[in-house]
């Protein structure tokens, strides 16, 4: 899984380096496709169609801009100065899967956007820190939710992390808010994708856009998304999608 995770990490790094004012989301998808192709990996996103989706997903990344929380379809939209972009990417290699996401600002950042992104990263770090053998899924959820709520941000209900391994989405689900000491016990050998999603306005409401995929904030405020695939080991959590500094 670490090998698949490193393909994802390299794809996200390449996308972030390519993202600039005037670059289209579709062009960023092509950047990620090239990384996967060169690594001999395939995309678990491309052609994916869960029960809620009207059509199969047409890309290898989700590119969510500003008030889009997750699942944004890469289109011909060209990035503008100050856009907040969240990019989610997955890879399958030798029968194993990796999944990760990051958020960043293109061009000139607004302080409030930087704070939102930094909080998403802190929430992710708190969730990973709680992913130790002997804890439970609720401990991860509680750690994430505590960071998000303390900063005054909303958490989209019903969306969160998941188990991962041979397939992108496996049991158990990993909520972004919950009660500590509840849920499935964590044990060495488990692999999870932990992914906080934050809404800047502090409300939790969202809706699906006309494309049936993109989830947007109801209040129109911006959103941020951070994700890593991690393994629970005897010596603590191991991040399988860690990106090079």
UniProtKB/TrEMBL annotation:
Residues reported to bind a divalent metal cation 1: 88, 99, 227
Catalyzed reactions: Release of N-terminal amino acids, preferentially methionine, from peptides and arylamides
InterPro entries the UniProt entry points to: Creatinase/aminopeptidase-like, Pept_M24, Pept_M24_MAP, Pept_M24A_MAP1
Free-text remark on how the cofactor is bound: Binds 2 divalent metal cations per subunit. Has a high-affinity and a low affinity metal-binding site. The true nature of the physiological cofactor is under debate. The enzyme is active with cobalt, zinc, manganese or divalent iron ions. Most likely, methionine aminopeptidases function as mononuclear Fe(2+)-metalloproteases under physiological conditions, and the catalytically relevant metal-binding site has been assigned to the histidine-containing high-affinity site.
Keywords recorded for this protein, A-Z: Aminopeptidase, Hydrolase, Metal-binding, Protease
Catalytic EC class: hydrolase
UniProt-annotated binding residues for substrate: 71, 169
Domain of life: Bacteria
Sample GO molecular function, one term: aminopeptidase activity
Cofactor(s) listed: Co(2+); Zn(2+); Mn(2+); Fe(2+)
Enzyme Commission (EC) number: 3.4.11.18
Binding-site residues for a divalent metal cation 2, renumbered to this chain: 99, 162, 195, 227
Residue ranges of domain Peptidase M24 in the record: 1-234
Annotated Pfam families: Peptidase_M24 (PF00557)
Binding partners and assembly: Monomer.
UniProt xrefs under PANTHER family: METHIONINE AMINOPEPTIDASE
Protein task: Removes the N-terminal methionine from nascent proteins. The N-terminal methionine is often cleaved when the second residue in the primary sequence is small and uncharged (Met-Ala-, Cys, Gly, Pro, Ser, Thr, or Val). Requires deformylation of the N(alpha)-formylated initiator methionine before it can be hydrolyzed.
Family note: Belongs to the peptidase M24A family. Methionine aminopeptidase type 1 subfamily.
Name of protein: Methionine aminopeptidase
Organism: Streptomyces thermospinosisporus
Gene: map_3
């Amino acid at each position: 899984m670490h090998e698949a995770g490193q393909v994802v990490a390299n794809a996200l790094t390449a996308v972030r380096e390519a993202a600039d004012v005037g670059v289209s989301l579709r062009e960023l998808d092509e950047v990620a496709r090239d990384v996967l192709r060169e690594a001999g990996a395939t995309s678990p996103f491309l052609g994916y169609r869960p029960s809620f989706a009207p059509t199969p997903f047409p890309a290898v990344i989700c590119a969510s801009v500003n008030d889009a929380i997750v699942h944004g379809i890469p289109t011909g939209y060209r990035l503008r100065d100050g856009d907040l972009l969240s990019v989610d990417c997955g890879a399958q290699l030798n029968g194993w899967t990796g999944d990760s996401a990051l958020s960043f600002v293109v061009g000139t950042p607004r302080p409030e956007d930087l704070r939102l992104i930094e909080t998403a990263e802190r929430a992710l770090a708190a969730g990973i820190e709680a992913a130790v053998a002997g804890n439970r899924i609720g401990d991860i959820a509680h750690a994430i939710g505590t960071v998000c709520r303390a900063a005054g941000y909303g958490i989209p209900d019903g969306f969160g992390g998941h188990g991962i391994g041979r397939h992108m989405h496996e049991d158990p689900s990993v909520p972004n808010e919950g009660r500590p000491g509840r849920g499935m016990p964590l044990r060495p050998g488990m692999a999870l994708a932990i992914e906080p999603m934050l809404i800047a306005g502090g409300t939790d409401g969202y809706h699906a856009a006309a494309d049936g995929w993109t989830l947007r904030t109801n209040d129109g405020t911006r959103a941020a998304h951070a994700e890593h695939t991690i393994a629970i080991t005897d010596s603590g959590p191991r991040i399988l999608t860690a990106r090079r500094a």
